[in-house]
Design a protein that fits this description.
Elements lengths: L32 H6 L3 H8 L6 E4 L9 E4 L3 E5 L6 E2 L10 E5 L5 E5 L6 E3 L2 E3 L1 E3 L5 E4 L2 E7 L4
Parallel strand pairs: 3-4
Antiparallel strand pairs: 1-2, 1-11, 3-5, 5-6, 6-9, 7-8, 7-10, 10-11
Length: about 150
C-alpha cells in the first residue's frame, strides 16, 4: 500500500476478514433419517419424541459443543454471536446476527441467512432461505446443528 492509499487515521483500517470454511462444510451424502436417530443418545431421542406441537429442536450431534440442544418454539428464533441471540453461538466464524429460523402458519420451519459474512449452509449447500426437514444439517460458522421436529407435528 503506498502513502496515497494508506488511511490518514490508523483507526480507519479495515479489520474485517473472511474465514473460509470449505473444509468444515463437507458433508459426504445425506444420511437416512433412521441413521441420524442412531447418533442421538437415549435421552435426546426421548426429548425429541416429546417435543410439543409446532416446535422443533436443533441438536449438535457432531463437532464443537456436541450435545447442545436448542428448542425452537417461537415464531422467529435468532441465531448469532450476539449474546442477545436466542441461540448464542460464541465463535468468530459466526456473525453477530447470522441467521434466523421462522415458523410459518402451517407450523413448518425455515432457515434464513441474515447477510452473514461466512454464510449459512443447509446440507452443505449455501442458502439464503430454505425450508427445513427432519434430519437437515444447518451449518453456521463451525457449528453443525441437526434439525428435529416434534413427532406430534
Amino acid at each position: 500500500m503506498n502513502d496515497s492509499q494508506a488511511p490518514k487515521d490508523p483507526t480507519e483500517r479495515e479489520l474485517t476478514s473472511t474465514i473460509h470454511l470449505s473444509a468444515l462444510r463437507s458433508v459426504p451424502k445425506p444420511r437416512p433419517l433412521e441413521e441420524i436417530y442412531t447418533f442421538l443418545s437415549s435421552e435426546e431421542r426421548e426429548i425429541v419424541s416429546q417435543l410439543p406441537k409446532n416446535s422443533a429442536m436443533l441438536i449438535v450431534i457432531a463437532g464443537p459443543n456436541r450435545g447442545s440442544r436448542f428448542l425452537i418454539d417461537s415464531e422467529e428464533t435468532s441465531i448469532g454471536r450476539d449474546p442477545k441471540s436466542d441461540i448464542f453461538l460464541d465463535d468468530v466464524t459466526v456473525s453477530r446476527v447470522h441467521a434466523k429460523i421462522s415458523r410459518s402458519e402451517s407450523g413448518d420451519f425455515a432457515v434464513h441467512d441474515c447477510g452473514s459474512l461466512n454464510g449459512s449452509y443447509l446440507n452443505a449447500h449455501q442458502i439464503t432461505d430454505s425450508n427445513l426437514a427432519v434430519g437437515d444439517e444447518i451449518q453456521i460458522g463451525k457449528f453443525r446443528l441437526t434439525y428435529f421436529k416434534g413427532r406430534a407435528n
